[in-house]
Specification:
32% of the residues lie in helices and 25% in strands. The strands form four sheets. Strands 4, 6, 7, 8, 15, 16, 17, 18 and 19 form a nine-stranded mixed beta sheet that branches. Helix 6 crosses helix 12.
Length: 420
């Protein structure tokens, strides 16, 4: 356990995405003086465009069993559910080797246990934060629907669902009639589904993240828009940060929560974390004119439909492994339109926008949450991949406990930075 901070000491949080914002708010509620830093506006990077889900049933890591035989197909299909850019392959190779190592059955079993330990507490951790921030009106606790074309397609997915049930995920299979009772608009092609009642979503992930930020400011937090160049060291511990415009800012601890850009600060202290960009795309349809009640997942097509306010839709999904600065492949966004029409019928594209974001991905799917063990005063919260919004409040509660010297309610060893 790292040295606890005294009540009221100052903490700097680097990164104003939803993870950093939630950490800053939780630390402020615990009585710390908190400065949140980001080079851009709060919640305007990956947190702006995510799919809005609290994906509590995603307990099986991306490196699921059988992933090895899928890799050649990923490399050959630039528009598939998970694509690799050939040009990036030499750089990505070490990450891919770790990813494949994580797909061993014994390793997957361990990772599933460790992911479920985090995901099983998401709703509880969020409830307190959402109430304090006054955001209950954005939190839609209607469950989700994962669609299947037929019984055969569902039967192929059943072992994974049973594994999820063994790890505490409660779900129920739905017939076509039961599915239509919940969502009458769904096309005839989709004959059955699985519903996870505890799954939830927010109407707009940017407005939700910004609402958490506004609560942080109301609680007395400080935001500084500036680029952080490096962390500062004194007497063998981290004591603040060097910024581009505000000079040196001092604090008793620094938390790095800047997503895929966190690796720059890890390298400063000779840590090597295999952090890569899990690039995601979305199509926003503010005037789609489609009334859905549930978050929709299409298992075979690997994409989702987020019902937004006033009949709007957000289509999101698929994963692209490429350099964080590579030009977007907007075809990966536009193919989502045809996929969605096969589920909910036609809709308006008036006001349509497309977006791409860099989700910070580690090869074992587990985030890093904890101290840099050889560098007192330095903490990391990164590598959440597609679970950033989902795990933001839980990450915040766990880090707050550790900074206060409290023993977290779950074993933090699986999420330590030194595992790599």
């Amino acid at each position: 356990m790292a040295q606890a901070l005294a009540p009221g000491e100052n903490v700097i949080v680097v990164g104003a995405g939803v993870v950093g914002i939630a950490i800053a708010l939780q630390l402020r509620l615990a009585g710390f003086g908190v400065t949140l830093l980001d080079r851009g506006e709060p919640a305007m990077e990956t947190s702006y465009g995510n799919a809005g889900a609290f994906a509590i049933s995603d307990v099986i890591p991306l490196a699921e069993p059988g992933v090895l035989r899928k890799v050649p197909g990923w490399m050959l299909d630039p528009l598939g559910p998970l694509a690799l850019r050939w040009r990036y392959l030499p750089t990505l190779a070490p990450w891919l080797l770790r990813f494949l190592a994580a797909s061993r059955p014994s390793r997957v079993a361990t990772l599933t246990r460790d992911l479920s330990a985090l995901l099983g507490r998401v709703n509880t951790d969020y409830a307190a934060l959402i109430e304090r921030a006054g955001l209950a009106h954005l939190w839609r606790r209607h469950g989700n629907l994962t669609l299947y074309r037929n019984q055969q397609e569902f039967d192929a997915a059943l072992p994974a669902w049973e594994e999820k049930r063994r790890h505490g995920v409660q779900w129920q299979a739905l017939s076509r009639n039961e599915l239509l009772e919940r969502e009458p608009l769904l096309a005839e092609e989709w004959q059955c589904a699985v519903q996870v009642p505890a799954w939830s979503h927010v109407d707009d992930p940017y407005l939700f993240s910004r609402g958490l930020f506004d609560a942080f400011i109301r609680e007395g937090g400080r935001f500084v828009q500036d680029e952080v160049l490096a962390t500062l060291q004194q007497d063998g511990r981290t004591c603040g940060v060097e910024t581009a415009s505000h000079g040196q800012l001092h604090a008793a601890a620094v938390v790095i929560a800047c997503g895929v850009w966190s690796d720059r600060f890890a390298r400063q202290h000779q840590y090597r974390i295999p952090l890569e960009s899990e690039r995601g795309y979305h199509v926003n349809l503010p005037m789609a004119g489609v009334k859905l009640h549930h978050f929709i997942q299409c298992a075979s097509e690997s994409f989702v439909i987020l019902p937004m306010a006033n009949g709007g839709l957000r289509l999101a999904g698929t994963v692209e492994l490429a350099h964080r600065d590579a030009a977007p492949d907007w075809r990966r966004a536009h193919i989502l339109l045809d996929k969605a029409r096969r589920i909910v019928g036609d809709f308006s594209t008036e006001g349509m926008t497309v977006w791409m974001g860099n989700r910070p991905s580690l090869p074992d799917t587990l985030p890093i949450i904890g101290s840099a063990q050889q560098q007192p005063g330095l903490w990391f919260a990164t590598g959440h991949g597609h679970l950033g919004l989902t795990l933001a409040a839980t990450t915040a509660v766990l880090l707050s406990d550790m900074l206060q010297g409290k023993t977290p309610t779950l074993d933090m060893q699986p999420y330590r930075m030194s595992r790599f």
